[in-house]
Design a protein that fits this description.
Mean pLDDT: 94
CATH superfamily: Cytochrome P450
Number of strands: 10
Strand order of the largest sheet: 1-2-3-10-7-4
Order of helices and strands: EHHEEHEHHHHHHHHEEHHHHEEEEHH
CATH class: Mainly Alpha
Radius of gyration: 21 Å
Distance between the termini: 50 Å
Oligomer: single chain
Number of helices: 17
Low-confidence stretches: none
CATH topology: Cytochrome p450
Length: about 375
């Protein structure tokens, strides 16, 4: 185990984290941050090991506090109980079920792309990255789209709080969490009175192992969906379009051959990894690559580092839309692998198809510096010209 002082990320490091990931891997298989009482895992095989052993590396409520009052379902419960909830939820986001959303999603994308083009060059994040996935998800979940700005502000209060100190962030997350619970409870109460064709209504009649979900169960599922569904695809779109705006040759490949877009999405998920790391808590004394890790330690699993590990990837620093094998773990791994990966892929593909058909050539304004956020790597100032 090696001690390591994590540098304060500057704009360059946030935009291009791969050199820092490489440094982490070179320091050692396990890197200890004493001031955070945390260890960092950056090697591909070690990351997969951690994600594949939830009995030792738990995703429980102790791992991340995001304003919740109970474990979020199914993220913060581990096997075997976790399996029962995934059995309920996985079919709702299976490829065949998700495919039914394509026509509606494409219609929304075309409408918003046409408006953005008509309004002239501007901010891709505000015009498309935010409204497309949030609208799709609010419709699926059953929350009013017209309250999108309110919901996004609540989501940011958890994921991107403006507070500076840890204590301030925790206080803000707890206060925001109560507001999210109130919004979701209001929706649940409405569906008890008049069920609708949406996920919340479905959850209220669903069963896990023969037992009907309680209102608290539904709240704990929807709280997780609320945060994940309103952020991660936005972050992915930001990263992908920003890359393509700065790499015209690869963008032109997609314009010339749209069938490459699904391959490009997988490669950009590998290279950009919009969710670069997740957290686990050790349930017992253990080892990672021979390095001891005590029970109760926080383990930061660097997915972005695993996706660029030169020991398992051929030419990892080259973004290759023709890469023959791409078993990235941008959606995580093991039992807790991302529930919404198929929906995310659908949205990303449709947006990139429609955007490049409408605007085949675009770039950043001269001298414009993109500002990537920490943690989830979104880009609020994604200004484009064409």
């Amino acid at each position: 185990m090696s001690n390591f002082e994590l540098p304060t990320p500057d704009p360059e490091a946030l935009a291009h984290p791969q050199p820092l990931f490489k440094l982490l891997r070179e320091v050692g298989p396990i890197v200890e941050l004493e001031e955070n009482d945390m260890v960092i895992v950056g090697g591909h095989d070690d990351v997969r090991h951690v994600l594949s052993h939830p009995d030792v590396f738990s995703s429980g409520v102790e791992a991340v506090s995001i304003g919740q009052v109970r474990p979020l379902l199914p993220l913060q419960i581990d096997p075997p109980e976790h399996k029962s909830y995934r059995k309920l939820l996985d079919p709702l986001f299976a490829p065949r079920r998700v495919a039914l959303l394509e026509d509606q999603t494409r219609g929304l994308v075309r409408e918003l792309v046409a408006k953005f083009v008509a309004d002239g060059p501007g901010n891709f994040h505000d015009a498309l990255s935010v409204p497309i996935p949030t609208t799709v998800f609010l419709q699926i979940l059953g929350l009013p789209v017209e309250r999108r700005d309110e919901f996004l502000e609540l989501k940011d209060g958890i994921i991107r709080p403006p507070a500076q100190t840890r204590e301030e962030r925790v206080e803000m997350a707890n206060a925001t969490g109560q507001k999210i619970y109130a919004v979701l409870q209001e929706a649940i109460d409405e569906r008890h009175e008049a069920p609708r064709d949406d996920l919340i209504s479905n959850f209220l009649t669903a069963e896990v192992d023969g037992t009907r979900l309680t209102d608290e169960d539904v709240l704990d599922i929807c709280y997780l969906f609320f945060l994940a569904g309103l952020d991660t695809v936005t972050a992915s779109l930001d990263c992908m379009v920003a890359f393509l705006a700065q790499h015209p040759q690869q963008r032109e490949e997609l314009v010339a051959d749209p069938s490459l877009i699904p391959h490009a999405i997988e490669e950009l998920l590998r290279w950009e990894t919009p969710v670069p790391g997740i957290v686990r808590i050790t349930t017992q004394d253990t080892e990672i690559s021979g390095c001891p890790v005590a029970a109760g330690r926080t383990v930061a699993v660097m997915i972005g580092s695993a996706n660029t590990d030169e020991r398992v990837w051929d030419d990892p620093d080259t973004v290759d839309f023709h890469r023959e094998s791409n078993k990235h773990i941008a959606f995580g791994g093991g039992a807790h692998r991302c529930l919404g990966s198929h929906l995310a892929r659908l949205e990303l593909r449709v947006v990139l198809e429609e955007w490049h058909q409408a605007v085949p050539s675009y770039a950043l304004p001269d001298g414009h510096e993109l500002l990537y956020s920490r943690d989830l790597r979104s880009i609020e100032n994604l200004e484009l010209v064409w």
